[in-house]
């Protein structure tokens, strides 16, 4: 991490998430407080059902906690209106999910250009940016193919290009290699790590792959409604 990149980009204060289950409340997690520093690659690990994805959704202003808040600078994300939260996500965050969610009727290039077109960018400029990002993910020759004509790894690389075409500061990825075989997963993770470094992103990665988590700057482990920071190299092989 560069010396100048030591400021926090997210501050999480006393988050709680409660779900109603029949007549009882299910506390998924409570009193979560931590910081995410600019430029770091942070892994979030834990058992299935620990609340990793829910936490990522709250950090990305896609969901709201039952209590607490997330601050980006002085901006309280959980207090934003729906429109303001959507604007924040569009400006600041690129999302990658376990499933690629590419639009099947469009080509890879059109899928990558879509966030720029939604912003109102000129089609010609959006196409140029899409071509640049397809090149960044090693798919320059696949831009005219529709998603169904691409392999699983190629689909996820297109989804990564789509997430980054708007030049966000934050990349949030929820099990981005979860549907891929081991070799393809390694290629995709290595690509994410390179783009994180080259574009000086701040990246939050929910993963069950502890090998990938060990290669991140920091690791947060969720367990029984709490979160603890663990040394990456202390994770089991």
Outline the secondary-structure elements:
Elements: E1 8-21, E2 24-37, E3 41-46, H1 52-59, E4 67-72, E5 75-76, H2 82-92, E6 93-96, H3 108-118, H4 123-136, H5 152-164, E7 170-174, H6 182-198, E8 202-206, H7 210-214, E9 218-223, E10 226-230
Parallel strand pairs: 3-8, 3-9, 6-7, 7-8
Antiparallel strand pairs: 1-2, 1-4, 4-5, 9-10
> How would you state the average pLDDT, rounded?
92
Looking at the structure, what is the overall shape?
Answer: globular
User: Which fold name fills CATH's third level, the topology?
Assistant: Rossmann fold
Describe the largest sheet: 6 strands, mixed
Span of the ends, CA to CA: 25 Å
**CATH superfamily annotation:** P-loop containing nucleotide triphosphate hydrolases
Strand content: 25-35%
Number of strands: 10
Instruction: Give the helix proportion (percent range).
Output: 25-40%
- Structural class estimated from helices and strands: alpha/beta
Number of domains: 1
Just name the CATH architecture: 3-Layer(aba) Sandwich
Q: Uncertain regions: pLDDT < 50 for 5+ in a row?
A: 1-5
Strand order within the widest beta sheet = 6-7-8-3-9-10
Order of SSEs, N→C?
A: EEEHEEHEHHHEHEHEE
- What is the helix tally? 7
What's the CATH class label?
Alpha Beta
Q: Return Rg in Å.
A: 18 Å
Gist of the model:
It is built from seven helices and ten strands. It has a single domain, classed as P-loop containing nucleotide triphosphate hydrolases (Rossmann fold, 3-Layer(aba) Sandwich), CATH 3.40.50.300. The chain is an alpha/beta fold and 237 residues long.
């Amino acid at each position: 991490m560069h010396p100048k990149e030591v400021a926090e980009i997210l501050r999480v204060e006393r988050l709680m998430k409660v779900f109603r289950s029949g007549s009882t409340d299910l506390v998924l997690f409570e009193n979560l407080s931590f910081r995410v520093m600019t430029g770091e690659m942070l892994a979030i690990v834990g058992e299935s059902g620990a609340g990793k994805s829910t936490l990522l959704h709250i950090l990305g202003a896609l969901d709201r906690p039952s209590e607490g808040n997330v601050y980006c600078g002085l901006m309280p994300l959980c207090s934003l209106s729906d429109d303001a939260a959507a604007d924040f996500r569009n400006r600041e965050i690129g999302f990658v999910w376990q499933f690629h969610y590419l639009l099947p009727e469009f080509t890879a290039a059109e899928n990558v250009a879509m966030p720029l077109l939604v912003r109102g960018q000129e089609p010609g400029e959006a196409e140029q940016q899409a071509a640049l990002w397809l090149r960044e993910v090693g798919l320059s020759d696949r831009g005219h193919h529709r998603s169904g004509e691409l392999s699983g790894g190629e689909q996820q690389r297109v989804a990564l290009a789509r997430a980054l075409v708007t030049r966000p500061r934050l990349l949030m990825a929820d099990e981005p290699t979860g549907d891929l075989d081991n070799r393809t997963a390694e290629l995709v993770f290595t690509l994410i790590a390179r783009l994180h470094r080259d574009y000086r992103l701040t990246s939050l990665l929910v993963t069950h792959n502890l090998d990938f988590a060990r290669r991140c700057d920091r690791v947060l482990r969720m367990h029984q409604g709490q979160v603890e920071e663990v040394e990456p190299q202390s994770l089991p092989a």
